[in-house]
What does this fold into?
Amino acid sequence: MRNKSMLRQVLSSVGLALIAVAMVAMPASAFSAAGKSGEAGLAAQDHECRFWAISSEDSPGSVIQDHLVNLPNSLKNLSSANPNGWSVGYYPDGSDDPTVNRGFPPAYTDPNFDNAATEAASATPRIAVSHIRSTSSGVTPPSGDPHPFERVKNGKHWLMGHNGTIDKDVLLDLIRPDYFAANPPQYGSNQSEWIDSDLYQIFTLQTLEDFNWQVKPALGYVIHRLREAIGPGTSPSTEQLNFFLTDGTTVWAYRQGNTLWYLDETSSPTPYTAVASQPPSASPGSWVELSDGQLITMHQNSAPEVENINVYISEVIVDNDGLGTSYTGGAWGYSSGLMPYGGTSRTEMEQGATYAFEASINGYHLVSLWWTYWPSRCTNVPVDIYDGTTLLDTVVVNHRENDGRGIR
It folds into this structure.
């Protein structure tokens, strides 16, 4: 929704109770090149996994070889600390279909890793990625490192890699059952075998679809929801959210937890931008360390953009009886249902009664609803979503589901 937005629920049965609507809005972006320099080195940078990516109109083959194989802190030379497989992927020039090579022996012992790096370098790809893994969640496939996870959505091949661990219960709570059924994990047959990073991509793609493929607003929402959910009682209780994501045209990478660095060589004779868990060179040189909460967008033919993800996170809550609310039909008395947001909730049984929530806000956002539970609540409440006076969508909601809280 953009501009002045309104949500209206129409009573279609008996026992409707409304509490609050929260619109997570993504305002206009503000670019910066903020970062900090630091020291590269294994002792200071302990990672569960490590990843690397490059973006260019024609990525220099010598750079790919150096970053993956030759330099002191190349992924190959760091892989003794990440022994559970490797991958090298790239989009050949002129192709939207990536090639991904994987292996299970550690990269430093496997000549196939060198061969995969040489293959990627020889392809002068627009985008190339690589990952080395220390298994912290789920299975270790015999084919090698499962990162990057690949799925085809919106006519594009999406690759995503992760560095860290996320509680699988958190991710499963965020993925809608229907979306999970249509997009099951690629590895494992039960929750203990599923890989958290695979679920991370499923949740990210679900959100991208919800946001009509507006990538950075969607990523802001993903991080916002994970920050809310991770904490005491989750395992781990810290945010380990580093990722790279690409659709074959652009690379997005985010730091939250482990270190992440980028190199802007877009002004050089052979322009490119690279990102890595740590600089592959012996010292940082021109590499810049991202801070927690920073998102980098890497283009093929222009300088990278570094932004704080908070630019894309802004929440507006409209509660019953507050500014922006109105109703028609019936008296809309107070409900005795449990767990109301803000202390009270309204209910009405008259056929055709409506309750409206309205807020002036810009950008793309999702709408979340919170209602109190009662066995007689409606199972088919139509929720009309407007942009000004233009009806965008009508979503039918079952108010007996989700223990009184639903997300859309």
About this structure: The radius of gyration is 24 Å. Residues 50-290 form a domain with the Glutamine Phosphoribosylpyrophosphate, subunit 1, domain 1 fold (CATH 3.60.20.10). Helices lie at 61-70, 75-78, 111-122, 168-174, 177-182, 196-210, 215-229. The chain has two domains: 4-28+314-407, 50-290.
